[in-house]
Every structure is written in C-alpha cells, then in structure tokens.
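Protein in question filed below.

…
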Amino acid sequence: MKYIIIGLGNYGHVLAEELSALGHEIIGADISESRIDSIKDKVATAFVIDATDEQSLSVLPLNSVDIVIVAIGENFGASIRVVALLKQKKVPRIFARAIDAVHKAVLEAFDLERILTPEEDAARSLVQLLDFGTNMEGFRIDQDYYVVKFTVPEKFVGYFVNELNLDEEFHLKMIGLKRANKITNCLGISLTELHVKNELSADEKVEEGDELVCYGRYRDFQTFWKAI
C-alpha cells in the first residue's frame, strides 16, 4: 500500500520506518529538515514542507495514495489545520493522531476514518503489564474483551494442551500457541525463536518458553493470573 505520513517526530518516524520495512511505499513530510534527513534513506520520498500551508501541502500526491496519516502530536493547532486542509481537498482516507481528550474530540468532528491514540494505547499496555506482572501483549477488542498473548506460566509446562481447561475454568478461549525453539545465529549466539503451531494434536505438551494466545474478558484474565 501507499501512505503519506505528515509529521515525522518520534511517532511518525517509527511509523514510517516500520511500514517501509514491511514493503509499503511511504511518502514522508515534515517542516524539519533534520527529521527529513534522518528518514529519507528509509522511505520512498520525503519532503521538507510546512503542511499547514495549503500551497505547500499541494506538493504531495494526496489523492493517489491509500491513506494519509497526520502524525503531528506536539502542535495541536498544526494538527487540526492540516486535517481541515485535507478534508477541504477531499482526501478520502485520513488517519490522525490525538494526544489528549480535547484533541480527540476536535478530530472527531471531522468524521475521519480513524483517530490514533498512541499515548493512551501505550498507557493501557503498561497497565496490563503491571497488572499481570508477566511478559504479555494485549489487543483490546472492546470495553471488556481482549486478545492476550503471554508466556506460559511455569506450572503449565509439561501439561497436554487439552488439560489446561482454560475455557471451562477461566472462560478464556485459547486461539493459538507459539512454540519456542533454540537457534544459533551466524555469530554462534544462541537465540530463542517463536513460531505459530498451526495444528495442535491431543498429545501436544506445553513446553518452557511457549506463548499462548487467548481471547476473553479482561477480568477473567485477571482471575486467571491471580489463580496461578
């Protein structure tokens, strides 16, 4: 896919770099020449422009990309003006970053395809990490339900997968297992590599370092961790 990312601070820079690494075509834009210099070799094209200026913004191929992402966070006024100009130019798909509740409320008035809240999402992830006290990643489905990936507790090691009884005991549905394998890289260093087990037989045993992916209510995950 082809993206324009406007605003290449820490958030926009990582977004551009990661999307580019995945094979997407990225066009970056920022008012800062130093930010453009730091990303220009990692994306398809990068422009030093003031995106709040309508004429400067017209340099970008706004209507020939899949999504335009406004990643500006530190300048509330600039973010809102850029979004307003994009809507004026009838850009069909706009994602915009909001840094607080007021910013988000104003962006909601533009009826954008998606409002990004990275700071809020990062805070939620940290709360989950602190709450569970383990190596885990969570994806929020709605107010109550999550998909959570976590390293199997030590007490699970050696059990057959069908003996875990996560569904019956904790109302958690296991939807995947990632198997930990030891590999040696080109420098002779031993590393752990995880891959998804697409098929789980009845005699499959949980091994140390495996990761489980489960779906359920957040409070059920809390009950699960307290129980183990």
